Amino acid sequence: MPEGTVTSADGTIIAYTAWGAGDPIVLIDGATGYRAANPLNQETAELLAGEFLVINYDRRGRGESSDTPPYVVEREFEDLEAIIEQAGQGRPATVFGWSSGANLALNAAHDGVPIARLALFEPNAAIDDARPPLSDDYVESLDAAIAEGRPGDAVALFMTAAAMMPEEVVAGMREEDFWAGLEAIAPTIAYDARQVGDALSGKPLRPELWKRIDIPVLVMHEIDTWPALAAGSRAIAAHLPTSTLTPVPGEQHSTTADVLAAALRTFIKEN
To answer: Which residues form the AB hydrolase-1 domain (predicted)?
Structure first.
Protein backbone atom coordinates (compact mmCIF):
# COMPACT_ATOMS: atom_id res chain seq x y z
CA MET A 1 0.00 0.00 0.00
CA PRO A 2 2.45 2.68 -1.15
CA GLU A 3 1.82 6.31 -0.37
CA GLY A 4 3.21 9.18 -2.35
CA THR A 5 2.65 12.60 -3.82
CA VAL A 6 2.36 14.12 -7.27
CA THR A 7 2.90 17.72 -8.26
CA SER A 8 0.05 19.46 -10.04
CA ALA A 9 0.54 22.03 -12.79
CA ASP A 10 0.43 24.98 -10.37
CA GLY A 11 2.85 23.37 -7.92
CA THR A 12 0.23 22.05 -5.51
CA ILE A 13 1.28 18.79 -3.84
CA ILE A 14 -1.39 16.09 -4.06
CA ALA A 15 -1.04 13.15 -1.67
CA TYR A 16 -2.30 9.68 -2.56
CA THR A 17 -2.36 6.03 -1.55
CA ALA A 18 -2.22 3.23 -4.12
CA TRP A 19 -3.01 -0.47 -4.04
CA GLY A 20 -2.31 -3.23 -6.56
CA ALA A 21 -1.12 -3.07 -10.16
CA GLY A 22 -2.66 -2.81 -13.62
CA ASP A 23 -4.83 -0.22 -15.29
CA PRO A 24 -5.69 2.51 -12.78
CA ILE A 25 -8.93 3.23 -11.01
CA VAL A 26 -8.88 6.69 -9.45
CA LEU A 27 -11.25 7.43 -6.55
CA ILE A 28 -12.49 10.99 -5.99
CA ASP A 29 -14.20 12.03 -2.77
CA GLY A 30 -17.08 14.48 -2.60
CA ALA A 31 -17.50 17.49 -0.34
CA THR A 32 -15.66 17.16 3.02
CA GLY A 33 -14.21 13.76 2.03
CA TYR A 34 -10.54 12.76 2.07
CA ARG A 35 -8.47 9.63 2.69
CA ALA A 36 -8.43 9.71 6.48
CA ALA A 37 -12.14 10.48 6.65
CA ASN A 38 -13.45 7.87 4.20
CA PRO A 39 -12.29 4.30 5.00
CA LEU A 40 -14.70 2.91 2.39
CA ASN A 41 -12.27 3.88 -0.36
CA GLN A 42 -9.51 1.79 1.19
CA GLU A 43 -11.86 -1.15 1.70
CA THR A 44 -12.93 -0.96 -1.94
CA ALA A 45 -9.35 -0.63 -3.16
CA GLU A 46 -8.26 -3.71 -1.26
CA LEU A 47 -10.97 -5.75 -3.00
CA LEU A 48 -9.85 -4.54 -6.44
CA ALA A 49 -6.08 -4.57 -5.92
CA GLY A 50 -5.66 -8.04 -7.38
CA GLU A 51 -6.66 -6.76 -10.83
CA PHE A 52 -6.17 -3.00 -10.87
CA LEU A 53 -4.00 -0.17 -9.60
CA VAL A 54 -6.41 1.70 -7.32
CA ILE A 55 -5.47 5.26 -6.40
CA ASN A 56 -7.17 7.28 -3.68
CA TYR A 57 -6.02 10.89 -3.33
CA ASP A 58 -6.68 13.85 -1.09
CA ARG A 59 -8.18 16.67 -3.10
CA ARG A 60 -6.38 20.01 -2.77
CA GLY A 61 -6.84 21.71 0.57
CA ARG A 62 -7.73 18.47 2.37
CA GLY A 63 -5.89 15.81 4.29
CA GLU A 64 -2.22 15.76 3.35
CA SER A 65 -2.55 17.69 0.08
CA SER A 66 -1.54 21.33 -0.12
CA ASP A 67 -3.41 24.17 -1.79
CA THR A 68 -2.54 27.12 -3.98
CA PRO A 69 -5.01 30.00 -4.22
CA PRO A 70 -6.88 31.37 -6.03
CA TYR A 71 -9.17 28.44 -6.75
CA VAL A 72 -10.72 27.80 -10.14
CA VAL A 73 -12.27 24.49 -11.17
CA GLU A 74 -9.56 23.80 -13.75
CA ARG A 75 -6.95 23.41 -11.01
CA GLU A 76 -8.67 20.21 -9.88
CA PHE A 77 -8.71 18.92 -13.46
CA GLU A 78 -4.95 19.41 -13.43
CA ASP A 79 -4.70 17.60 -10.09
CA LEU A 80 -6.55 14.60 -11.50
CA GLU A 81 -4.45 14.64 -14.66
CA ALA A 82 -1.28 14.64 -12.53
CA ILE A 83 -2.57 11.65 -10.56
CA ILE A 84 -3.32 9.72 -13.77
CA GLU A 85 -0.02 10.62 -15.41
CA GLN A 86 2.36 10.36 -12.46
CA ALA A 87 0.76 7.87 -10.05
CA GLY A 88 -1.15 5.94 -12.72
CA GLN A 89 1.80 5.88 -15.15
CA GLY A 90 -0.35 7.40 -17.87
CA ARG A 91 -2.34 4.20 -18.42
CA PRO A 92 -6.05 4.29 -19.40
CA ALA A 93 -7.86 5.25 -16.22
CA THR A 94 -11.30 4.58 -14.85
CA VAL A 95 -12.33 7.52 -12.66
CA PHE A 96 -14.90 7.02 -9.92
CA GLY A 97 -16.48 9.94 -8.08
CA TRP A 98 -18.66 10.17 -5.00
CA SER A 99 -21.41 12.83 -5.04
CA SER A 100 -19.89 16.21 -5.98
CA GLY A 101 -16.67 14.33 -6.71
CA ALA A 102 -18.66 12.74 -9.52
CA ASN A 103 -19.45 16.21 -10.86
CA LEU A 104 -15.73 16.98 -10.74
CA ALA A 105 -15.05 13.80 -12.71
CA LEU A 106 -17.61 14.79 -15.34
CA ASN A 107 -16.17 18.28 -15.63
CA ALA A 108 -12.64 16.93 -15.98
CA ALA A 109 -13.62 14.44 -18.67
CA HIS A 110 -15.46 17.16 -20.57
CA ASP A 111 -12.34 19.35 -20.34
CA GLY A 112 -10.17 16.68 -21.91
CA VAL A 113 -8.46 14.93 -19.00
CA PRO A 114 -7.50 11.49 -20.38
CA ILE A 115 -10.15 9.24 -18.84
CA ALA A 116 -11.20 5.87 -20.27
CA ARG A 117 -14.39 5.42 -18.26
CA LEU A 118 -16.41 7.32 -15.67
CA ALA A 119 -18.25 5.75 -12.74
CA LEU A 120 -20.42 8.08 -10.68
CA PHE A 121 -22.18 7.53 -7.37
CA GLU A 122 -25.19 9.80 -6.83
CA PRO A 123 -23.85 12.80 -8.73
CA ASN A 124 -25.44 16.16 -8.00
CA ALA A 125 -28.34 17.39 -10.11
CA ALA A 126 -31.74 18.97 -9.46
CA ILE A 127 -33.89 19.66 -12.49
CA ASP A 128 -37.32 19.90 -10.89
CA ASP A 129 -38.94 20.22 -7.46
CA ALA A 130 -37.61 16.89 -6.13
CA ARG A 131 -35.40 18.94 -3.82
CA PRO A 132 -34.94 22.65 -3.06
CA PRO A 133 -32.45 24.21 -5.49
CA LEU A 134 -29.35 25.92 -4.21
CA SER A 135 -29.73 29.67 -3.93
CA ASP A 136 -28.01 31.91 -6.46
CA ASP A 137 -25.76 33.28 -3.72
CA TYR A 138 -24.77 29.90 -2.23
CA VAL A 139 -21.13 30.06 -3.36
CA GLU A 140 -20.80 33.71 -2.35
CA SER A 141 -22.21 32.91 1.09
CA LEU A 142 -19.66 30.12 1.56
CA ASP A 143 -16.84 32.41 0.48
CA ALA A 144 -18.02 35.17 2.83
CA ALA A 145 -18.17 32.83 5.82
CA ILE A 146 -14.58 31.72 5.20
CA ALA A 147 -13.31 35.25 4.57
CA GLU A 148 -14.93 36.45 7.79
CA GLY A 149 -13.44 33.66 9.89
CA ARG A 150 -16.67 31.66 10.26
CA PRO A 151 -15.76 28.20 8.94
CA GLY A 152 -18.40 26.55 11.10
CA ASP A 153 -21.09 28.61 9.41
CA ALA A 154 -19.81 27.51 6.01
CA VAL A 155 -20.03 23.87 7.06
CA ALA A 156 -23.52 24.40 8.49
CA LEU A 157 -24.68 26.09 5.28
CA PHE A 158 -23.44 23.14 3.25
CA MET A 159 -25.10 20.65 5.58
CA THR A 160 -28.49 22.38 5.46
CA ALA A 161 -28.64 23.82 1.93
CA ALA A 162 -26.71 21.21 -0.07
CA ALA A 163 -26.97 18.04 2.04
CA MET A 164 -30.55 18.86 3.08
CA MET A 165 -30.02 18.10 6.78
CA PRO A 166 -32.43 19.64 9.33
CA GLU A 167 -31.08 22.71 11.09
CA GLU A 168 -31.58 21.19 14.54
CA VAL A 169 -29.50 18.15 13.56
CA VAL A 170 -26.68 20.36 12.29
CA ALA A 171 -26.84 22.43 15.49
CA GLY A 172 -26.25 19.26 17.47
CA MET A 173 -23.38 18.25 15.20
CA ARG A 174 -21.60 21.52 15.96
CA GLU A 175 -21.18 20.31 19.56
CA GLU A 176 -19.43 17.09 18.54
CA ASP A 177 -15.66 16.56 18.48
CA PHE A 178 -15.58 15.81 14.74
CA TRP A 179 -16.87 19.29 13.88
CA ALA A 180 -13.39 20.79 14.24
CA GLY A 181 -12.19 18.52 11.45
CA LEU A 182 -14.97 19.75 9.20
CA GLU A 183 -14.10 23.36 9.96
CA ALA A 184 -10.47 22.67 9.00
CA ILE A 185 -11.48 21.82 5.43
CA ALA A 186 -14.39 24.27 5.23
CA PRO A 187 -12.73 26.40 2.50
CA THR A 188 -12.90 23.42 0.14
CA ILE A 189 -16.70 23.18 0.38
CA ALA A 190 -16.90 26.15 -1.99
CA TYR A 191 -14.64 24.19 -4.37
CA ASP A 192 -17.31 21.50 -4.64
CA ALA A 193 -20.02 24.13 -5.06
CA ARG A 194 -18.14 25.49 -8.05
CA GLN A 195 -17.72 22.00 -9.51
CA VAL A 196 -21.47 21.38 -9.17
CA GLY A 197 -22.17 24.74 -10.80
CA ASP A 198 -25.76 25.18 -11.90
CA ALA A 199 -26.60 21.46 -11.86
CA LEU A 200 -28.51 22.06 -8.59
CA SER A 201 -30.42 25.08 -9.89
CA GLY A 202 -33.74 23.27 -10.21
CA LYS A 203 -33.69 23.89 -13.96
CA PRO A 204 -33.09 21.39 -16.77
CA LEU A 205 -29.45 20.59 -17.40
CA ARG A 206 -28.01 22.85 -20.09
CA PRO A 207 -27.72 21.03 -23.46
CA GLU A 208 -24.05 21.96 -23.72
CA LEU A 209 -23.22 20.62 -20.25
CA TRP A 210 -20.77 17.68 -20.63
CA LYS A 211 -21.60 17.42 -24.35
CA ARG A 212 -18.03 16.37 -25.22
CA ILE A 213 -18.17 13.24 -23.06
CA ASP A 214 -18.20 10.20 -25.34
CA ILE A 215 -16.70 7.54 -23.06
CA PRO A 216 -18.66 4.88 -21.15
CA VAL A 217 -20.33 6.24 -18.01
CA LEU A 218 -21.83 4.26 -15.13
CA VAL A 219 -24.27 6.21 -12.94
CA MET A 220 -25.17 4.55 -9.64
CA HIS A 221 -27.64 5.40 -6.92
CA GLU A 222 -28.89 3.46 -3.93
CA ILE A 223 -32.03 1.42 -4.39
CA ASP A 224 -33.55 3.05 -1.30
CA THR A 225 -31.79 6.40 -1.41
CA TRP A 226 -33.52 9.72 -0.80
CA PRO A 227 -35.82 10.43 -3.76
CA ALA A 228 -34.00 13.66 -4.63
CA LEU A 229 -30.67 11.84 -4.99
CA ALA A 230 -32.18 9.15 -7.20
CA ALA A 231 -33.84 11.84 -9.31
CA GLY A 232 -30.51 13.62 -9.75
CA SER A 233 -28.78 10.42 -10.81
CA ARG A 234 -31.54 9.67 -13.30
CA ALA A 235 -31.34 13.17 -14.72
CA ILE A 236 -27.60 12.94 -15.31
CA ALA A 237 -27.85 9.45 -16.78
CA ALA A 238 -30.57 10.64 -19.17
CA HIS A 239 -28.41 13.61 -20.12
CA LEU A 240 -25.38 11.50 -21.10
CA PRO A 241 -25.88 9.36 -24.24
CA THR A 242 -23.10 6.91 -23.29
CA SER A 243 -24.33 6.27 -19.75
CA THR A 244 -25.88 3.32 -17.96
CA LEU A 245 -28.01 3.84 -14.84
CA THR A 246 -27.62 1.17 -12.17
CA PRO A 247 -29.37 1.15 -8.77
CA VAL A 248 -27.27 -0.59 -6.11
CA PRO A 249 -27.77 -1.54 -2.47
CA GLY A 250 -26.73 1.09 0.05
CA GLU A 251 -27.89 3.69 2.52
CA GLN A 252 -27.22 7.27 3.61
CA HIS A 253 -25.66 8.42 0.34
CA SER A 254 -23.16 5.54 0.33
CA THR A 255 -22.83 1.80 -0.26
CA THR A 256 -20.57 -1.04 0.84
CA ALA A 257 -17.12 -1.89 -0.45
CA ASP A 258 -18.18 -5.24 -1.87
CA VAL A 259 -21.07 -3.69 -3.80
CA LEU A 260 -18.91 -0.89 -5.16
CA ALA A 261 -15.98 -3.13 -6.06
CA ALA A 262 -18.25 -5.56 -7.90
CA ALA A 263 -19.95 -2.75 -9.82
CA LEU A 264 -16.64 -1.22 -10.87
CA ARG A 265 -15.15 -4.56 -11.86
CA THR A 266 -18.15 -5.45 -14.03
CA PHE A 267 -18.30 -1.99 -15.60
CA ILE A 268 -14.62 -2.05 -16.57
CA LYS A 269 -14.72 -5.57 -17.99
CA GLU A 270 -17.84 -4.79 -20.07
CA ASN A 271 -16.35 -1.56 -21.42
So the answer is: 33-257
The domains of the chain are located at 3-129+205-270, 138-195
Helix (H, G, I), strand (E, B) or coil at 219: strand
Nearest Cα neighbor of 196 from 78, 104, 132, 109 is: 104
Going residue by residue through the chain, which has 271 residues, state the pLDDT in tens, using 9 for 90 and above: 689 999 999 999 999 999 999 999 999 999 999 999 999 999 999 999 999 999 999 999 999 999 999 999 999 999 999 999 999 999 999 999 999 999 999 999 999 999 999 999 999 999 988 899 999 999 999 999 999 999 999 999 999 999 999 999 999 999 999 999 999 999 999 999 999 999 999 999 999 999 999 999 999 999 999 999 999 999 999 999 999 999 999 988 999 999 999 999 999 999 9
Q: Reply yes or no on domain 3-129+205-270 having CATH 3.40.50.1820.
A: yes
pTM of the predicted model, to two decimals?
0.97
Question: How many Cα neighbours within 13 Å face the side chain of 156?
Answer: 14
Cβ pair 28, 157 in contact under 8 A: no
The SS3 assignment for 222 reads strand
Beta strand 217-222 pairing with 3-7 = unpaired
